[in-house]
Amino acid sequence: MADCQLVDKYLKDSLSNITAMDKIPSTYDETNRLLWEHEQQVRSVFDAPQLLLLQEEGDTILNQLQQEENYLGHSQDYKEEMLHVKKMYKHLQNSMMNLVKVAETRFHKLEQGLQLRGFENECNKLNIWISTEGRHMLNKYNSCIDNLKSAKMLEDQFLKDYFSAMVSLEKFFLQTVYP
Asked: How much is the pTM?
Protein backbone atom coordinates (compact mmCIF):
# COMPACT_ATOMS: atom_id res chain seq x y z
CA MET A 1 0.00 0.00 0.00
CA ALA A 2 2.80 2.39 0.90
CA ASP A 3 4.49 1.64 -2.45
CA CYS A 4 1.30 2.52 -4.30
CA GLN A 5 1.09 5.81 -2.43
CA LEU A 6 4.72 6.59 -3.31
CA VAL A 7 4.07 5.80 -6.96
CA ASP A 8 0.96 7.99 -6.86
CA LYS A 9 2.96 10.92 -5.49
CA TYR A 10 5.68 10.29 -8.07
CA LEU A 11 3.13 10.30 -10.90
CA LYS A 12 1.52 13.52 -9.63
CA ASP A 13 4.90 15.23 -9.35
CA SER A 14 5.89 14.01 -12.82
CA LEU A 15 2.62 15.23 -14.29
CA SER A 16 3.07 18.68 -12.79
CA ASN A 17 6.67 18.81 -14.08
CA ILE A 18 5.61 17.86 -17.59
CA THR A 19 2.78 20.38 -17.67
CA ALA A 20 4.76 23.16 -15.95
CA MET A 21 5.81 24.87 -19.18
CA ASP A 22 3.04 25.41 -21.68
CA LYS A 23 4.64 28.17 -23.76
CA ILE A 24 6.54 27.43 -26.96
CA PRO A 25 10.01 29.03 -26.90
CA SER A 26 10.72 31.89 -29.25
CA THR A 27 13.51 30.27 -31.29
CA TYR A 28 13.92 27.07 -33.25
CA ASP A 29 16.96 25.97 -31.24
CA GLU A 30 15.24 26.56 -27.89
CA THR A 31 12.17 24.65 -29.07
CA ASN A 32 14.33 21.79 -30.33
CA ARG A 33 16.18 21.67 -26.98
CA LEU A 34 12.89 21.69 -25.05
CA LEU A 35 11.51 18.89 -27.23
CA TRP A 36 14.61 16.80 -26.51
CA GLU A 37 14.37 17.55 -22.76
CA HIS A 38 10.69 16.59 -22.80
CA GLU A 39 11.50 13.24 -24.42
CA GLN A 40 14.22 12.59 -21.83
CA GLN A 41 11.94 13.57 -18.95
CA VAL A 42 9.11 11.32 -20.12
CA ARG A 43 11.52 8.43 -20.72
CA SER A 44 12.96 8.80 -17.21
CA VAL A 45 9.48 8.88 -15.67
CA PHE A 46 8.39 5.67 -17.38
CA ASP A 47 11.73 3.99 -16.68
CA ALA A 48 11.46 4.65 -12.94
CA PRO A 49 11.91 1.35 -11.05
CA GLN A 50 8.81 1.74 -8.86
CA LEU A 51 6.64 2.42 -11.90
CA LEU A 52 8.12 -0.48 -13.86
CA LEU A 53 7.53 -2.80 -10.93
CA LEU A 54 3.92 -1.69 -10.67
CA GLN A 55 3.35 -2.15 -14.41
CA GLU A 56 5.01 -5.57 -14.49
CA GLU A 57 3.77 -7.09 -11.25
CA GLY A 58 0.76 -5.04 -10.16
CA ASP A 59 -1.89 -7.29 -11.68
CA THR A 60 -0.13 -10.42 -10.38
CA ILE A 61 0.10 -9.07 -6.83
CA LEU A 62 -3.54 -7.97 -6.89
CA ASN A 63 -4.62 -11.42 -8.15
CA GLN A 64 -2.62 -13.15 -5.42
CA LEU A 65 -4.24 -10.94 -2.79
CA GLN A 66 -7.68 -11.75 -4.18
CA GLN A 67 -6.91 -15.48 -4.02
CA GLU A 68 -5.83 -15.12 -0.40
CA GLU A 69 -9.08 -13.32 0.31
CA ASN A 70 -10.79 -16.75 0.39
CA TYR A 71 -8.63 -17.69 3.38
CA LEU A 72 -8.33 -14.32 5.11
CA GLY A 73 -11.42 -12.60 3.80
CA HIS A 74 -13.52 -13.28 6.81
CA SER A 75 -12.20 -10.17 8.49
CA GLN A 76 -13.98 -6.91 7.69
CA ASP A 77 -10.67 -5.04 7.89
CA TYR A 78 -9.15 -7.26 5.20
CA LYS A 79 -12.14 -6.75 2.90
CA GLU A 80 -12.01 -2.97 3.36
CA GLU A 81 -8.25 -2.95 2.79
CA MET A 82 -8.63 -5.01 -0.39
CA LEU A 83 -11.26 -2.61 -1.66
CA HIS A 84 -8.97 0.29 -0.89
CA VAL A 85 -6.00 -1.40 -2.62
CA LYS A 86 -8.08 -2.12 -5.73
CA LYS A 87 -9.24 1.51 -5.89
CA MET A 88 -5.69 2.75 -5.40
CA TYR A 89 -4.38 0.45 -8.14
CA LYS A 90 -7.10 1.56 -10.55
CA HIS A 91 -6.34 5.18 -9.66
CA LEU A 92 -2.64 4.59 -10.41
CA GLN A 93 -3.45 3.00 -13.76
CA ASN A 94 -5.65 6.00 -14.62
CA SER A 95 -2.89 8.37 -13.52
CA MET A 96 -0.41 6.58 -15.79
CA MET A 97 -2.82 6.85 -18.71
CA ASN A 98 -3.32 10.54 -17.96
CA LEU A 99 0.41 11.05 -17.87
CA VAL A 100 0.81 9.32 -21.23
CA LYS A 101 -1.91 11.49 -22.79
CA VAL A 102 -0.48 14.72 -21.38
CA ALA A 103 3.05 13.78 -22.44
CA GLU A 104 1.89 12.94 -25.98
CA THR A 105 -0.13 16.14 -26.24
CA ARG A 106 2.80 18.24 -25.09
CA PHE A 107 5.14 16.39 -27.43
CA HIS A 108 2.86 17.12 -30.40
CA LYS A 109 2.56 20.77 -29.39
CA LEU A 110 6.33 21.06 -29.18
CA GLU A 111 6.71 19.36 -32.57
CA GLN A 112 4.22 21.81 -34.06
CA GLY A 113 6.07 24.67 -32.39
CA LEU A 114 9.32 23.38 -33.85
CA GLN A 115 7.79 23.30 -37.33
CA LEU A 116 6.38 26.79 -36.77
CA ARG A 117 9.77 28.16 -35.72
CA GLY A 118 11.41 26.45 -38.71
CA PHE A 119 8.84 27.99 -41.03
CA GLU A 120 9.38 31.36 -39.38
CA ASN A 121 13.16 31.05 -39.94
CA GLU A 122 12.66 30.19 -43.60
CA CYS A 123 10.23 33.09 -44.04
CA ASN A 124 12.82 35.43 -42.56
CA LYS A 125 15.41 34.11 -45.00
CA LEU A 126 12.96 34.63 -47.85
CA ASN A 127 12.26 38.20 -46.70
CA ILE A 128 15.98 38.93 -46.61
CA TRP A 129 16.41 37.47 -50.10
CA ILE A 130 13.48 39.51 -51.44
CA SER A 131 14.77 42.72 -49.93
CA THR A 132 18.32 42.20 -51.26
CA GLU A 133 18.69 39.98 -54.32
CA GLY A 134 15.05 40.16 -55.35
CA ARG A 135 15.02 43.93 -55.17
CA HIS A 136 18.25 44.06 -57.20
CA MET A 137 16.69 41.82 -59.87
CA LEU A 138 13.55 43.97 -60.09
CA ASN A 139 15.48 47.26 -60.24
CA LYS A 140 17.04 46.33 -63.55
CA TYR A 141 13.54 46.11 -65.05
CA ASN A 142 12.57 49.65 -64.05
CA SER A 143 14.57 51.32 -66.82
CA CYS A 144 12.99 52.51 -70.05
CA ILE A 145 13.65 50.52 -73.17
CA ASP A 146 14.11 52.43 -76.41
CA ASN A 147 14.01 49.60 -78.96
CA LEU A 148 12.18 46.32 -79.53
CA LYS A 149 15.30 44.14 -79.40
CA SER A 150 16.25 45.45 -75.95
CA ALA A 151 12.67 44.98 -74.76
CA LYS A 152 12.68 41.36 -75.96
CA MET A 153 16.03 40.66 -74.23
CA LEU A 154 14.74 42.26 -71.05
CA GLU A 155 11.56 40.20 -71.22
CA ASP A 156 13.57 36.98 -71.69
CA GLN A 157 15.80 37.86 -68.74
CA PHE A 158 12.75 38.68 -66.63
CA LEU A 159 11.18 35.30 -67.44
CA LYS A 160 14.41 33.52 -66.46
CA ASP A 161 14.58 35.45 -63.20
CA TYR A 162 10.89 34.87 -62.56
CA PHE A 163 11.30 31.13 -63.15
CA SER A 164 14.34 31.06 -60.86
CA ALA A 165 12.38 32.88 -58.13
CA MET A 166 9.44 30.46 -58.48
CA VAL A 167 11.76 27.45 -58.23
CA SER A 168 13.29 28.96 -55.07
CA LEU A 169 9.84 29.57 -53.61
CA GLU A 170 8.75 26.03 -54.41
CA LYS A 171 11.85 24.61 -52.70
CA PHE A 172 11.21 26.89 -49.75
CA PHE A 173 7.63 25.71 -49.31
CA LEU A 174 8.51 22.06 -49.82
CA GLN A 175 11.21 22.30 -47.15
CA THR A 176 9.15 24.20 -44.62
CA VAL A 177 5.57 23.11 -45.13
CA TYR A 178 6.21 19.45 -45.99
CA PRO A 179 9.53 18.57 -44.25
From this structure: 0.63
